[in-house]
Amino acid sequence: MAGKFVVSLTYAKNDLDKATLAFVVGNAAAASDKEAVVFLSSEAVQLAVKGYNQGLQEPGFAPLADLMANFAKAGGKMYVCSPCFKKRSLDETALVDGAIIVGGAKLVEFMADGAPSISY
User: Fold this and answer.
1) Nearest to 35 by CA among 77, 69, 97, 72
2) CA atoms within 13 Å, Cβ hemisphere of 27
C-alpha cells in the first residue's frame, strides 16, 4: 500500500452529512491504495453496531450502510474508541464488518509515521 490515511469521525445520526462524508473520503482513500482507517469516537461509535446504519441516507449520496460496507470490502478498517463504546453500553458482539474496538494507543501507533488525517 502506498501510505496511510485516517478519517476521524465523531458524528452519527446527530449529523448524517458529516458521517456520510467521512465514509465517502474513507472510500476514496481506500480506492487510492491507502491503508485507510476511519476512527469512530463519541457518537460515531454507534455506527459500529450492526443495524444502526440501516435506512440512513444523506440526500445526494449513497446509503451510509453501503458506504460503510464498501469501505470494509476495500480493506478499510474502522477503529472504534473503546471508552466511547463502553460508555454507551453497546454490544461488542454485534460489530459491522471492518470494525475493531481499540484504545487510543492503537490510533497513535497507526499515525506515528505521519499519516495524514481529516476530521468530521
Assistant:
1) 77
2) 17
Domain span at residue 34 reads: 4-119
Could you read off the pLDDT of 4-54 as tens digits, one per residue? Answer: 999 999 999 999 999 999 999 999 999 999 999 999 999 999 999 999 999
Closest C-alpha to 2, from 29, 37, 22: 29
CATH of the domain at 39: 3.40.1260.10
Global pTM reads 0.95
Structurally, how many domains does the chain consist of? 1
The H or E element containing residue 104 is helix 104-111
